[in-house]
Amino acid sequence: MLEDDTMEVFAAIRTVLAVRRYTDARVGPDIVRRVVEAGRLAASSVNLQPWHFVVVQERATLRSIGRIMKTGRYTADASFAVVVLVEKDSPFAVSDASRAIQNMVLAAWSDGVGSNWVGFGRMPEVEELLGVPKTHEGLGIVPFGYPAVKLGRGRKRRKSMGEVASRERFGVPFA
Predict the structure, then answer these.
(1) Residues 6+ apart with CB under 8 A from 10
(2) CA distance 73 to 55
(3) C or N terminus of the chain, fewer CB within 10 Å?
(4) Cα separation of 172 and 165, whole Å?
(5) pLDDT digits (tens, 9 = 90+) for 102-126
(6) What is the pTM of this model?
(7) Using 50, 70 and 90 to split pLDDT, how confident is the model at 153?
(8) What does the DSSP 8-state code read for residue 81?
(9) Which of 5, 29, 144, 123 is CA-nearest to residue 78?
């Protein structure tokens, strides 16, 4: 751990898990700001930054999003959510905004805040709810909150390195 008690980057990558149940505890404004800042600082093709983040903290709006997003009903119980929008005309938007989402997830996790990506692509009802202009469209929603259950950090089931990575040519074992 670093001096300010935040997790080192690789530790966050190694241990982050999807969180779909949250406590009632509110995430403080300093952490919310740091999460959004992590998204803003993401790498971006040609530095175009073709994203916009709508931070939702109002309980009624979180409940509406949870009702709309059938795969993310738990958004209703989150402390806050970030709706990630992309510029419609950008060929880099999906890639760049995906990097921003991963930055936000890892930054939150390093502060003990869980999250999970909800949805992928257009979400007309959410876009209408949030007054999104026609120049943008939804890519995903990330609800954030303190995990309601204790999670075993790092207990991931992943394919072996040899199954997902090669050295120099496909099929040549990496390990």
Answers:
(1) none
(2) 17
(3) C
(4) 8
(5) 999 999 999 999 999 999 999 999 9
(6) 0.91
(7) low
(8) E
(9) 144
